[in-house]
Write a structure and sequence with these properties.
This protein has about 80 residues and is mainly beta. The chain is built from 1 helix and 5 strands. A hairpin with an 8-residue loop joins strand 4 (about 50-60) and strand 5.
Length: about 80
């Protein structure tokens, strides 16, 4: 990504939790591990990768499923404008 570019990032967050689904929403078999990291950890990883988090929204669950959700808007550090 060019310096000055923006990265939207969103997903489920948590504290050291993970899941290993066996079927996708459509019922097709899948095999992967999804790790839920705390929002602060994700912000630190963005910073280590050369991004500055310019906005963060964390949504607490109000019904099932009981997973927290976070949205980030990050900007690639450095001079220049997005291409």
């Amino acid at each position: 990504m060019a310096p000055g570019g923006h990265l939207p990032l969103a997903g489920h967050v948590g504290t050291g939790t993970h899941r290993r689904p066996t079927h996708a929403y459509s019922g097709h078999p899948v095999s992967y591990t999804s790790h839920r990291l705390p929002p602060g950890h994700l912000a630190a990883l963005l910073h280590e990768a050369g991004f500055t988090a310019t906005a963060q929204l964390t949504q607490e669950p109000d019904a099932e499923p009981t997973w927290r959700f976070a949205n980030f808007l990050a900007r690639k550090e450095g001079a220049g404008r997005p291409a």
